Amino acid sequence: MVIERGFEKERLSREEIEELEGLARLARGDIIKMTTLAGSGHPGGALSSLNILLLLYSKARIDPQNPLWPERDRIVISHGHISPGVYAALGRVGFFDPRAAVATFRLAGSPFEGHVVKKVPGVEWDTGNLGQGLSAGCGFALAARLKGLGYRTFVVMSDGEQTKGQVAEARRFAVKYGLRDLTVIIDYNHIQISGRIEEVMPSRIKEGYLVDGWDVMEIDGHDFQEIYQAIREALQKDRPVAILAHTVMGKGISFMEDEREYHGRALTEEEYRKAIEELGLEDDLQEYAKMRKEEVFGSIPPRPLPEVPRVDGGVPLTYEAGEKVGNRAAFGKALVDLATRNIERGVPVVAFDCDLASSVRVEEFGKRFPNYFFEGGIQEHNTATIAGALSREGVLTFFADFGVFGIDEVYNQQRLNDMNETNLKLVCTHTGLDVGQDGKTHHCIDYLGVMRNLFGFKVIVPADPNQADRAIRYAATHWGNFLVTTGREKEPVITTEEGRPFFDDSYTFRYGKGDLLRPGDMGAIVTMGGMASRAIRAWERLKEEGIRVMVINISCPFSLDRELLRQAASTGLIITYEDHHVETGLGCEVAKLIADEGWRVRFRRLGITAYGLSGRPEELLRIQGLDESSLTEAVKKEVRRG
Amino acid sequence: MVIERGFEKERLSREEIEELEGLARLARGDIIKMTTLAGSGHPGGALSSLNILLLLYSKARIDPQNPLWPERDRIVISHGHISPGVYAALGRVGFFDPRAAVATFRLAGSPFEGHVVKKVPGVEWDTGNLGQGLSAGCGFALAARLKGLGYRTFVVMSDGEQTKGQVAEARRFAVKYGLRDLTVIIDYNHIQISGRIEEVMPSRIKEGYLVDGWDVMEIDGHDFQEIYQAIREALQKDRPVAILAHTVMGKGISFMEDEREYHGRALTEEEYRKAIEELGLEDDLQEYAKMRKEEVFGSIPPRPLPEVPRVDGGVPLTYEAGEKVGNRAAFGKALVDLATRNIERGVPVVAFDCDLASSVRVEEFGKRFPNYFFEGGIQEHNTATIAGALSREGVLTFFADFGVFGIDEVYNQQRLNDMNETNLKLVCTHTGLDVGQDGKTHHCIDYLGVMRNLFGFKVIVPADPNQADRAIRYAATHWGNFLVTTGREKEPVITTEEGRPFFDDSYTFRYGKGDLLRPGDMGAIVTMGGMASRAIRAWERLKEEGIRVMVINISCPFSLDRELLRQAASTGLIITYEDHHVETGLGCEVAKLIADEGWRVRFRRLGITAYGLSGRPEELLRIQGLDESSLTEAVKKEVRRG
User: What are the helix (H) ranges across B392-438?
Assistant: First the structure.
């Protein structure tokens, strides 16, 4: 290749342009071939974005031989459906054999999926659901700053997705935090699936960026020299820049140009032949078809796990019996401790907040570590995605929010984080009817039911501040996505029958291990979170009446402690007891275990059966038959019946 | 009252202003009293919004004696946490006895909840999660047009929530559809929970509205004359208008003014006394405390159900055996039929799309009924909320989208719709691995797991186009929120053993009724949706080998057919079989039933156990052990083991 990497030179040389034009012609052929062969895909946008992609992948500080080089520039493709263009460009620039992409695009088992995935070398972030890419880019740009790396972040986007609200949220965040090394390039081809963007949903893209404080440039998105110079100029600016690259959908194939139908449809074989002839390329579709049949996936090595931060988990704090701390506060303290220990050691520890710092107990952290605290404002979608992207980059990343905002509002953002195998530590305070007077909109009673759908997220529901402390340290020191939940009210310290802290210095948190809080043989109450202390009080009342039921705490509902629950089942009666939607929470998980195992046990689920009212938690629990007295009565009734 | 309703007069009279000032003084006292008594709430914003609320509730075309008068102006409070201001203003204007609100604010069982709820006369839409109010307002404004009512819609918002992306989405929709009778009034007090809005997340509010094509006015938000005149002027404009009402947080109580801490905290009793003295009001807190103790809720009648459209469900279509239609197409046809029958009869039938009209099969509807088709663009959050609000207003409202966009991306919007007891008909095409080559981001494999958390939504998963046709007509003719899902590929017509359509003219869809597709006594396959036809093919194979298992189709997984499943259990073996996350779908629902009932039955769940790849559906199913052969083998293995 004659192309030299970097944006130092003022202009592209004639030779460089010629080489790029040559690559573009081949890549156009690749795009047409792979979509025709697969019988589906999005060739139109792939062709309009192509020259932008080729320029970026040729000039950015990335290394096809070492695609995960830590100091590389990060290139995010937000409109993941233009994957044919991305694969063709990466292949032609040397990241892999482009024939592998052509032959196996959209074939089950191939890395060359319908929407871009980072299984493919050169791809940084799996996308597909529009509007999230700029937020991911903000995350990568933040990582560069926090880790003192000088790389730049580029985000390529479509024009259609600019109307997603999350894009404007990301723009504001980028300006607030001065992410000057962030550059957006928009493939402005004016066509989305349903028609011209001006008709589908009018939007003043340029003015939107300007209002939010970005610089904007406009160029011909097919002219390599213009693309090069715009990016070069953008990198010298003191603020984030959006480059509006005017393009033509289907560029390079006469009959596809500016034609909406090719947004999301592959060419027929006849159209294909016409296109290949126009491009002056060889028609080798049958050879590729043969390779496809043989499932030749090329030699793409599996992507290694991203950088795992080597976190010092510190020494657990033990709160004494009767201490009024609560799980929220225990999280806040553990966070400060983790930051104190790790930041100095070179492991950045970061917390994101969405305008609730005091309530979610990250205020103290923010005061102590202002450079590591990010206030995302009332922009949860953007914040969730930024936190996810950052967490993959060797930064221990916490995102603290109310359950309803950190889970319900941003479920699809957490879902994409999870698909991206991020390392996010999500802490949701304010779950359950325990939220109380703020009423139903703020009662997150579905944190298990919603998160259960994500294959990667581990969820921990600590019973008291001691378990919360340990759960936070566990999540911090173990790779992967964790959700740790707490209530709003102060959960009391759980004690042994003798009155000592149950989760004391000798206790080690293990993911999936249940806790036998109280013994008994006439039945078992299986509970979690703040309800555990209520169950213990019910146990005491029942004991006085000669009814001995065991009390089991399940802190990891998605990884049930089978042995402990088998013991519970052997009593002949299991009652689950939770401050959660009764159909989707702990009772649901235990039901599956009982049915799967075929255990013979009487089973009753106590949980939330209607949206909550606005009132004190005890009242709300009572109304739904979930206070201590209701539990006691329910146990008595079941024990007597049995 | 000397105040005359309406905005015809050029100015407020001096007497009107005096009366408003008098009401404001009393209402300020109400706000302080109710929050102090409850010990929580948001007095700061309630005080800054108060004069806006009082002016609106006094002047808008609403009737305190008849709060649900169909032609009334609609007033949406987007920042629901300022409920003390809303309750005080409504009470002082005559909607109810304000003392009921003061005495019972945030008391479990009282209608005067922490965030505004429409149990309270005068409130139109339950809010609490910020950023959704303007979209709801768009829905009400659309309803006025569709039903030929001349009412106006006002949306009162906070400044902090302007950064939510959904707000900009709603602005664009309002301009695209020329909602000139929509007026926004922003309480611009510059303070949000965490500090000054300029510091928490800088945002150029005025310019944002201008860029999106709105008119903007700026006024003193405490000056009744200015508020009146601005609204009057706004109503004469030919486009939506945003009024930036500059205010002071905590207005009217000297020590609260511009003080962030009063955003979300009630006054102490000492502060309360100081405030009441400043206002020159009587300190009657003890009397209210007594009423609170006695739980005097006043005499608020329960709000009746909203207008139920009298929909003609038409005559079901029966597709013949072998006809290649698919459930998506069946939906599209049923929709056109419903529109043809009902629009002429005066029942508006509307469909919303998010840039996928052709894929979700609403294109034909859009061509035939352009005035009833709304293209929301790539702005799903806004679209989901608009559709919800509109559906409460006597308009039969469909929102069609891919599962991942209509459910996963907008879960919290559907959640708030559900809390608002809307009448939305959500149709999600493209669910399951059946989506195929678009890959994991587009595989909605959690539609049951996610929607199960909403108490009001009924979900129907039709097995074939005949059942789909009937399910759509059922949802259209029954009040409440329905989700109907389909796959992407064409589901074949299910037949009887004799080869006739199973769901034929003699079949009537009943919510909660299962279908015994094939008989058997050695076990039962329990399935749904597009997997039903695969189960039947497996049944045929198994039959040849002498294995007779029944095949049961469950179209309503949230309302299981207990009797039919009891029969299934009596075979001694149940295998659930679904194109859905194995932990949160049909198998999960059946597991709960088995555990709850204590049925002795061997139980096995077949479903999705990892994010899908990108490839043809049959391949993806095979990889996850869900194709026809895998099912056949699994059944054989279990039958032999039993």
Answer: 403, 411-419
The minimal CB distance from A169 to the residues B163, B412, B605 is found for B163
Identify the pLDDT of residue A269.
93
Interface membership of B208 toward A (CB under 8 Å): yes
- Are the Cβ atoms of A192 and B355 closer than 8 angstroms? yes
Could A115 and B614 be called an inter-chain contact, meaning their C-beta atoms sit closer than 8 Å? yes
What pLDDT digit, counting tens, does each position of B349-374 carry?
Answer: 999 999 999 999 999 999 999 999 99
Is A453 within 8 Å of chain B by CB?
A: yes
Grade residue A76 by pLDDT with cuts at 50, 70 and 90: very high
With an 8 Å Cβ cutoff, is A106 touching chain B? yes
- In tens, the pLDDT along A357-391 reads 999 999 999 999 999 999 999 999 999 999 999 99
Domains A327-485 and A515-641 share a fold: yes
**Cβ atoms A594, A603 nearer than 8 A:** yes
Interface test with A, best of B112, B163, B603 (most A CBs within 10 A): B163
Q: Are A329 and A361 in contact (CB under 8 A)?
A: yes
Lowest pLDDT segment from A264-273, A286-295, B214-223, B300-309: B300-309
Residue of A nearest to B109 (CA): A613
Kindly list the distances between the CA atom of residue B415 and the CA atoms of A344, B171, B418, in Å, as whole numbers in the listed order.
43, 22, 5
Chain B nearest C-alpha distance from A481 (Å):
15
Kindly report the number of other CB atoms within 10 A of residue A171's CB atom: 26
**A183, β-bridge pairs:** A154, A241
- Asked if B347 and B373 count as a contact pair (C-beta separation under 8 A), the reply is no
Least confident of A512-526, A539-553, B82-96, B283-297: B283-297
Q: Is A96 in contact with A90 (CB distance < 8 Å)?
A: yes
Q: Does A552 touch chain B (CB under 8 A)?
A: no
Nearest-CA distance A322 → chain B (Å): 24
Instruction: List, in order, residues 6 or more apart from A152 with CB less than 8 Å away.
Output: A60, A61, A73, A74, A144, A181, A182, A183, A235
B600 interaction partners in chain A (CB closer than 8 Å): 598, 600
B416: contact with A, CB 8 A cutoff? yes
Give yes or no for a contact between A590 and A574, defined as CB atoms under 8 angstroms apart: yes
CATH class, A14-64+72-118+152-159+177-293 region: alpha beta
B590 has a pLDDT exceeding 90? yes
Is the pLDDT assigned to residue B295 strictly greater than 90?
no
> Which residue ranges make up each domain of chain B?
14-64+72-118+152-159+177-293, 327-485, 515-641
pLDDT band at A296 (very low <50, low <70, confident <90, very high): low
Question: Residues 333 to 362 of B: which have CB under 8 A from any A CB?
Answer: 353, 355-359
Q: What's the rounded mean pLDDT across residues B285-308?
A: 81
Chain B interface test: which of A87, A118, A164, A624 (most B C-beta within 10 Å): A164
Q: Is A303 on the interface with B (CB under 8 A)?
A: no
Joined together, the tokens standing for residue B99 give 């003392």
Say yes or no for a CB contact (<8 Å) between A355 and B440: no
Domain A327-485 has CATH 3.40.50.970: yes
pLDDT bin (cut points 50, 70, 90) of residue B596 is very high
pLDDT for the residue A148: 95
Q: What's the confidence (pLDDT) of residue A300?
A: 72
Chain B nearest C-alpha distance from A225 (Å)? 31
List the beta bridge partners of residue B606: B577
What was the pLDDT predicted at B299?
64
Least confident window among A130-139, A292-301, B191-200:
A292-301
Tell me the nearest-neighbour CA distance from B292 into chain A, angstroms.
12
Q: What is the pLDDT of residue A294?
A: 84
C-beta atoms surrounding B634 within 10 Å: 18
CATH fold group of domain B515-641: Rossmann fold (3.40.50)
